[in-house]
């Protein structure tokens, strides 16, 4: 057991869910501390019946912490992780900053748990759009080896933070009232619209969000030969990312086999009855730790292609839940050694 645990970025949207999950799942610990920016320091948070004061995140604050779960913007993670490591504190980091560092394992516990134990003081959790996709890919890859993935995302505004969700509401109200609304979180109007850009131009016409899906997938499967062609789109949805995924496998997997493989995979839930209008939709998946799969069908345009639809709560499995599951994995391991 890690005696003293901490959440870094405890007051943010994902930090709040991490707190809920630690309480719900009875995460073993003796003491919990909440670290945040100077702006939030001094405020209090009620946790399992105790009122705890939020502390400012400084190098000295990490003294005495055994395990920290971080959910902060990348520049903050760049700064605090070395402080934590110097203080002997193990970090599960949810930011994007450390994910592609060769020394840092990138872990989805249902996919590559063994990688977590190669850590040198920090373990990264993937970007939300990658996590749900690799979770769905895992049973297919094990059964038939995935060679290529074509994915289009429909990403919720919550992926851009609380401001993104608020902007969806404000912009929708303004559009319905026929009044002007100037976007601030997004580069274009989000109401009644789709924005086919998340992140900045990164490589060969692909955005940073899209290249995360390429590189993180290859790192998690430890297979740089898996080819990924992503298109990431911001959708006027409050929470839960949706993805249209086409995989091509070396060995043919039928739709029926895929349905059975998905159904047998912990963390995945099959919701698939097109004839009756049953498939996963973001509104129905909000607040769940599972990743939902529907519209499972064989590709009409290739021999070994399989198409499906995948929806997941990007703030939970896409962020907080995955980070907490990594921490649970480390706890079990520390108990076993
Ligand atoms: C987004 N994937 O949805 C990002 C958040 N990490 O904007």
TrEMBL record:
EC number: 1.2.1.11
Residues involved in substrate binding: 155, 234
Record: active site: 128, 241
Semialdehyde dehydrogenase NAD-binding domain residues: 4-119
Enzyme class: oxidoreductase
Catalytic reactions of this protein: L-aspartate 4-semialdehyde + phosphate + NADP(+) = 4-phospho-L-aspartate + NADPH + H(+)
GO biological process: 'de novo' L-methionine biosynthetic process; diaminopimelate biosynthetic process; isoleucine biosynthetic process; lysine biosynthetic process via diaminopimelate; threonine biosynthetic process
GO MF, one annotated term: NAD binding
Domain of life the protein comes from: Bacteria
Residues engaged in binding phosphate: 99
Positions of NADP(+) binding: 11-14, 39-40, 158-159, 314
UniProt keyword annotations, A-Z: Amino-acid biosynthesis, Diaminopimelate biosynthesis, Lysine biosynthesis, Methionine biosynthesis, NADP, Oxidoreductase, Threonine biosynthesis
Pathway: Amino-acid biosynthesis; L-methionine biosynthesis via de novo pathway; L-homoserine from L-aspartate: step 2/3; Amino-acid biosynthesis; L-threonine biosynthesis; L-threonine from L-aspartate: step 2/5; Amino-acid biosynthesis; L-lysine biosynthesis via DAP pathway; (S)-tetrahydrodipicolinate from L-aspartate: step 2/4
Family: Belongs to the aspartate-semialdehyde dehydrogenase family.
Function field: Catalyzes the NADPH-dependent formation of L-aspartate-semialdehyde (L-ASA) by the reductive dephosphorylation of L-aspartyl-4-phosphate.
Assembly: Homodimer.
Name under which the protein is recorded: Aspartate-semialdehyde dehydrogenase
